[in-house]
Amino acid sequence: MASGYGLSGGPSRCFPFWQELLACYVVNTNTDDVTGAKKCVPALEDYYECLHHRKEKARAIELQRAYRRAEAAHPRENAPRPGAIRNLGLLDREEDTKDVLGTNRSITAGNGS
pTM of the entire structure? Predict the structure, then answer.
């Protein structure tokens, strides 16, 4: 939050990163020379990442892409068809349930066994 206070009244989640950035600026710069601020770029990136999570989001998107590529390259064997998952014996369709489960046992809807 902009006030520096978190939702529960304590310090915000990024306050430690802000303190680190501020300490870096205080140590590396003065009123005459601000070239030392270049040393604070990693601390500034950490603070921005805490605020906006851009790197984390990019990593998550890349992981999802890689997972989808791997899934498309190696499809599951014996994957059920969407129509086969239509019911699980709940709607008096024991034949469909037997086909899905691949068993010949009788399934009774009333007794739950």
Answer: 0.56
